[in-house]
Give the backbone structure.
Amino acid sequence: MDLNFTGTDLCAINGTRSPAEAHYDVVVVGAGPSGTAAALEAKQAGASVLLVDENPVSGALMGNDVPLYFGGRMTAATQNSERMLEAVFMSMPALEQAMEAGVELLLGTSAWGVYRNGPGVQSLPEQVVGLADAERSWLVGFNRIVLATGARDLSLAFPGWNQPGVMGAAALQMLLTRYSAFDGHRVLILGSHDLALETALMAIEHGLEVAGLVEVRAAPQGSAELVAKLAAAGISVRCNTAISSAQGGINGIEAATLSSGETIACDTICTAVGLVPAIELVDAMHGPRELDGQRGGYVPRGEANVSAVGLCAGLVDRGFDHVEYRMEWVRALAEVCAPDTIICQCEEVTRADLLGVQPPNYLARPPAMCARSLETLLDDGPANQDQIKRLTRAGMGVCQGRRCRDQVAMLLALESGQPFGTIPLASHRAPVRPLPMKILADWNEPAQMEAAWDVWFGIPTQWVPVEDIGTPFEDDHRGMLYTGMYE
Amino acid sequence: MSGSEVVIIGGGVTGLSAGWWLARSGVKVTVLDKFIVGWEASGRNGGGASHYSSPLFDEEQRLWPQMDELLGYPTEHQKERILIAMTERQWEQYRFVAERHQRLNHPVELLDVKQVQEAVPLAGDNCFGGVHYKFGGHANPQRSVQAYAWALQDLGGKIMQHSPVTGFETAGGKVTAVKTANVTYGCDAVVVAAGPQIPQLMAQFGIDIPLAAARAEMIITEPAPMMPLGGVDGHKLYGRQTLRGNLAYGGGPHEWIDVDETGPAARPSTPLARNLARRLAELLPKAAHLNVIRSWAGVIENSPDGRPIIDRLSSPDNVIVASMSSVGFGLSPASGHAIRDLVIDGKCSFADIDILKLSRFAGLEPDWREKRGWMPIA
């Protein structure tokens, strides 16, 4: 075949994509106070505005700890989607004002990806955000996007943390306040900074028993005022100790054992060591971010058409280094928890296998494999979480790394003796929410996409068996498999 | 050539396999990679190992079942594939492919709808039939790349990551050293297996390697119940069920892009994930409720006829160029062997690979990419 042919590559993406269904001047992701205020402000300035919020998420997603670390401690009331929708709407009075001002509001709608042209891609007709509800997914174009996705719980591993009843502070707060759907009675709280103290006080307010707070540092970390309030309520902070295991039964957590030797009865262990700005969308769109320990970790740097507000932009800076504090927790837990402690719940990866860079246990581990470890990998270069994720599967599961991404990075930093900020975090990728295939699917695909669709590049000579080249079979092959592929 | 030194540029699957084969022959190997081994297309692909169109096919088929043992590390290699037709036209095409395999003595079996569903429990009764390849298979790209790298190190080879090549030293019609920012590596021979960056590297010798880079995408689901056979293709998709159970699938339109000497600037995935999800939901309808949990993209290069370039240059005469033209992963056990032969013996010992020589492009016009539309979107 003459290779100097002239034509058009009909199997290239050019011009074949589905258009966005709608276009707004401003799309705001997250209808909490900051997102709603941003939406209202944009509307009042004359823009067309779409405000989306994934809450209420389905019971199945809550079970996968999306978007917060619910730890299976939701009541059955969370399965009632109408009740949940009403609860979300009632918990955010500003939503009504925004709607009256003309902001379009979609609840129960997640934003699972943001796409724009840039290095490596020029084929998008416009910058779009991918949205999905319980029925379908679609694309919406925008001029400016505001990320108000909040912050999610930092989770920490200890033996038994993969049972129902181990959960995060933000999830507990949401179940208590918005949904009235917390299915526990006696809570042990890990941490003693403001998040932990505020969560403990809220739990008491809601009639729960607080079994105590656990702090690895020598003294309570949060504001003296909150510590005093808790002390007045008879709640103590156990310092210089970490949780070393959790015991449970069929209904989950029943007790926690501390490294001090003390065992504390409880049905819930609430990890309140820190919140992490929810920057999955920023990561998936390759947006710039920076590490700010005072603001809870990596925060978006902001771009001309992309801004972050509220906790997504960073926690309120109270002069407290959250990253340093978390590293101390991870170090303390690594000291008191056995090497076979599971770090990645989805893929059941233990700390020993993570730091040993070992494959999952359904694969053989011949002697050469067993001799490998993070230490030997470090001879080749600095630790890279994505590389280690691919080898160990830690962070590859259905929770999309929300439960273990941060702690795996911290363990890699600890083990390699490097600051947390030197470990490139494992990537978040679209869809940043688990989306059923049939929901993600584009069922209204344009005809030109189908016309361009080939299993690979559609190069007529690429798959001709070498034996057939120069024989009549070569033309048969092209005629049957590549008719019309090239004009 | 035992004891001589070979520098391999590119720690992808082709370069690493070549390095491993050379190290097995007692050659001192140094692999230079701009970043981390397997970070580009070698670690981002469908994992297929069934390249019947290649002169390296027989060697690919011979070696894959032995690779775990030969390397000493798991690759997750699994045998055989099934191709499922979802339209009448696909069924016609796939039967044509089956007949061709029969003619070439590649063992295949036609499956009716019921047989497809027995072999592939996630398939539905919406298909037209299938072809069972009793050859080929698939492996885990990322695990295999690392297996080559580790096996190479176990034989004394060196892998220098974060070491982009900046230039060459030549003398007497040979390359005598390969330069990086901080270190110069003396060598007796060089293998250039740098994927899309090969043209920029070879331009330093005034040699034009016709390659064009493009981006392609895949989606991954949460684990599905394990099927008896994970290598399931069809509906113009390629992919596999991993040994963990995840469905990893790609296919569909590519986007031509420019890549400079530093490599792809980014590998963004796009809403094409939705078109992949639609086809996968049709191909495996009993998995349509499963969550898609990731999508990703990779950058691959193609030659003008889509066939690999594996060739030893005449000048400088100790340089071997290797581009697998977007189908490198599965062929890697065999491509590494071929490259080892070209370095050591000047000739491939197990197959006639003249069709992969660069000279086939001698009549190619300089603007071949523009003329056929293999160009980035302006």
